[in-house]
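not sure who needs this but someone in the group chat was asking about Ribbon-helix-helix domain-containing protein from Mesorhizobium amorphae CCNWGS0123 so here u go. i didnt clean anything up, its just raw.
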Amino acid sequence: MSPVEKRSVTIRGHRTSYSLEKPFYDDLVAIAAARKLTLAALVAEIDETRPRDANLSSALRLHVLDWAKHGMSGSA
């Protein structure tokens, strides 16, 4: 199992952090590239659509899982 790494990002002018294992982070980077977004823009999009009681790190993992389950078409 890959260790969890903490990363920082600025979303709408607010600095925040999330923790992901390397495979999830690598897939998140791939999703951003497939959608022609910066990683920060993708994280901001996921942050905007997650339920307020959901943890950002969990929402990112679920987004990667959803992307993988739907054929990695870049439209997740």
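also Helices lie at 22-34, 39-49, 56-69. if thats useful
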